Amino acid sequence: MLKVGVLGAGHLGKIHLRLLNQSEKYELIGFYDADIINGKKVAAEFGYTYFDNINDLIDAVDVVDIVTPTLSHYECAKKAMEKARHVFIEKPITNTLEEAENLLMLEHKYKVKGQVGHVERFNPAFTAVRESINQPMFIETHRLAEFNPRGTDVPVVLDLMIHDIDAILSVVKSKVVGIKASGVSVLSQSPDIANARLEFENGCVANLTASRISLKNMRKSRFFQKDAYISVDFLEKKVEVVRMKDAPAIAGDFDMILQNAEGVKKQIYFENPSITENNAILDELESFAESILEDSIPMVTLEQGTEALKVALQIIAAFENKSVLN
C-alpha cells in the first residue's frame, strides 16, 4: 500500500479523504488544511489525522493528493515533488501555463509521477464507448450546471468546460489550429456562460458550451464520425451508438434502410455498450496508485493536463480577441 496524504479538506477534499480511507491501494496518513479551524473540525468529525504543518505531512507519505484551490496547486505540487513525492492534482492542473510547464520539468527532474484529476475520463459512460470513438470529425458538448457559488472564482471555462476539453483532446489526435469563443458574465466577475469552437489540423471541429447558471444540470457530448454517431450522457451514465453499414441485398422487415441521391443504400443499426457502475473518483485515484506500483504511464498525465489548460486559457483569451491561433 502507498502512504498518501491529502492537501485541502474542502467539499471535494473530504470526498477524497473518505475514498482514500476505504481504498485497498492506499494507507491514508492524514491531511493538511490551511484553515486550522476547518482542519480540526474535519479531524474531529471523521477521525482523520490532521497535520498543521504541510511539510510534516509531505515527509510522512509517498503520494500527495492536492485538492486545494487552483491558485495553490503549483506551490503544493512543487513542495511535494522537491521531496520526491508523487502527486495527484485536481483539475485544472495549475492557475497558469507557466506553472504547469514548470511542474513538467520538476516531474522529470525528481523522477516522480503525476496525474491530473480529469475525472470524466473515468466516467463509465465514456469508458464504455472510448474505443469506439475513432477519428470524429464533429463534436458537440453541453455542460450546464445550476448556480453554485463554489468555483465562481475562476471562469466557467476552467470550472466546467475544461472537463470536455480534456475528453475531446483524448480522442482527437490532432493539433488545435483555430479557436473562436465568446463568454458572458451574469452573476460572477468572470464569465458564467461560454461557447467555443475548436478547429483541429485534421479537419475536426468541436463546439463546446458551458454554463453555471442553468435551470437544470446537463453533461452531454455527441461525436460524429464516418461510420457512427455516438452520444455520451456523463450525468445519467448513458450512451447511444448509432452505426451504418452497407445494406443487405434483401432487407428484413425490421431493417432500417436509408438511400442517398446516388442510390447507395445503408443500413442503420444500434449498439448497446455495457456500462459498469463505478465511483469515478475512486477509480482515478486507484489508477494512479497502479501506475506508481507498476511503473506505468498515468491515465491522465501532467502533459495532458497542461494541454487541456493551454486550450482553456486560449479560449478565455479568445473572449477578447474573438479568434486565436489562425
UniProtKB/TrEMBL annotation:
Q: Which Gene3D superfamilies match?
A: Dihydrodipicolinate Reductase, domain 2, NAD(P)-binding Rossmann-like Domain
A Gene Ontology molecular function term for this protein is:
nucleotide binding
User: What species is given as this protein's source?
Assistant: Maribacter algicola
Note the superkingdom of the native organism: Bacteria
Kindly give the Pfam families that the UniProt entry links to this protein: GFO_IDH_MocA (PF01408), GFO_IDH_MocA_C3 (PF22725)
Q: Please identify the protein, giving its name as recorded.
A: Gfo/Idh/MocA family oxidoreductase
Q: Which residues form the GFO/IDH/MocA-like oxidoreductase domain?
A: 155-216
The chain positions of domain Gfo/Idh/MocA-like oxidoreductase N-terminal read: 2-118
By its UniProt entry, which InterPro entries does this protein fall under?
Gfo/Idh/MocA-like_OxRdtase_N, Gfo/Idh/MocA_Oxidoreductases, GFO_IDH_MocA-like_dom, NAD(P)-bd_dom_sf
